[in-house]
Amino acid sequence: MKQIKLTSKRLAVVRAIILFAAVSMLLFGIFRGETTVVLQKGVRICLECIGIG
């Protein structure tokens, strides 16, 4: 298998692309209202674990 050489400039570009993709996916989920869904599921799981829900 051929190894790809990553210079510091290429590495910086790859990191910037990955960071941009992560932030855009995070913002997309926030604008869709997924934060409330995740919070509700987390609360439900915690209450089930301690035996209240």
What percent strand? under 5%
Which segments are poorly predicted (pLDDT under 50) over 5 or more consecutive residues?
A: none
The coarse silhouette is: elongated
The portion of residues assigned to helices is over 70%
How many strands, which pairing sense, and closed or not: the largest β-sheet?
A: none
Count of helices? Answer: 2
Mean pLDDT: 89
Q: How many runs of DSSP E, i.e. beta strands?
A: 0
CA-CA gap between termini? 53 Å
From the helix content, strand content and strand pairing, which structural class follows? Answer: mainly alpha
Radius of gyration: 19 Å
Order of helices and strands: HH
Characterization of the model:
By secondary structure, the protein is mainly alpha-helical. 75% of the residues lie in helices and 0% in strands. The chain contains two helices and no strands. The N and C termini lie far apart (53 Å). The model has no long low-confidence stretch (mean pLDDT 89).
